[in-house]
Design a protein that fits this description.
By secondary structure, the chain is α/β, with parallel strands linked by helices. It is built from three helices and four strands.
């Protein structure tokens, strides 16, 4: 399945316990055709944040990019489509 084929995700790096969940979500993205980057780049279409993210810095990108969390990724996979 290539649901995320047209998506490039920047993954928020953090030192908290969420890192394990984000790693699992990164794998799900790759398994469904998406690209994952650990640095912000011009081709990034989505920013993957922790479900409880309160980072104001990333919210500055919200007008240009889609901020998503692991729940959104899981729901897309469950539905078989991006929403």
């Amino acid at each position: 399945m290539s649901m995320f084929l047209d998506c490039t995700f920047y993954v928020q790096q953090c030192d908290c316990t969420c890192s394990e969940q984000l790693s699992i979500t990164e794998l799900d993205i790759r398994m469904h055709g998406g690209l994952v980057k650990n640095v912000m780049a011009d081709d990034v279409t989505h920013i993957l944040v922790h479900n409880d993210c309160q980072c104001d810095t990333l919210k500055n990108y919200a007008d240009k990019l889609k901020l998503v969390n692991s729940n959104w990724i899981e729901e897309c996979i469950r539905r078989g489509e991006k929403f």
